[in-house]
Amino acid sequence: MPDSVLSHALKTPAILKLAGKRVVLASNSPRRKEILRTFGLAPDIVPSTFEEDLDPSEFEDIHEYPVATATHKAVEVYERLVSESPDNAPDLVIAADTVVLSHVQPSTSQTDYSLLPQVRQELLEKPTSKEDNTRMLLDLNGGVCEVVTGLTIVYPVLVSPGYQLKSIDERTLVYFADNPDHLISAYADSGEGIDRAGGFAIQGLGGQLIRKIEGDFNNVVGFPAASFLKLLDMTLEEDSDFLDI
What one GO molecular function would you report for this record (predicted)? Predict the structure, then answer.
């Protein structure tokens, strides 16, 4: 079985324990795969079949919505792989879900929130068409949005139901420049934003639309690698049997 840990990975305790283990990414996102490879991990790619049909309105805190989706994706893949091949069960399944929240006030604002304009926040996932992409970008233009990634890991334990979950959410503020309409139109025409939450790719042509960010750049791309690696280290500190089952 190929080693999921690449030679350039930093030799932290958690990474060393991943050596020789079966690590699975429950996503076919090339961006998440590339980010993990940058940090020295090359997991098996097993996309989740979860429908991703949760109702955002059922969550009191909208930040819990992508975490719940990521958790369903991780559990679905873990249970499927254990059922299909119990002798080759995964040691770690990683799943993530990224959404964008429009009209988020910057964390540096000194204005009392009660005095700010009452603008309804919108949950922006992937646009359904070029027209929908244009609508999203016009709504975000000149403002601040929040990119939220829910991240869940699943790993085996000896007690029922046979696995443990750990989840986090990572939040990054993205400041859009006051872009002219012709630039937004040209970007929507490029098609780059169609497969991206919020309708833009900061690491690509969409970077022309962005003035600055506050937080993890990789989170905006789709995977908060630094927080993921910290989660592995924290889990190892809390559970000495982590990755030994």
Answer: nucleoside triphosphate diphosphatase activity
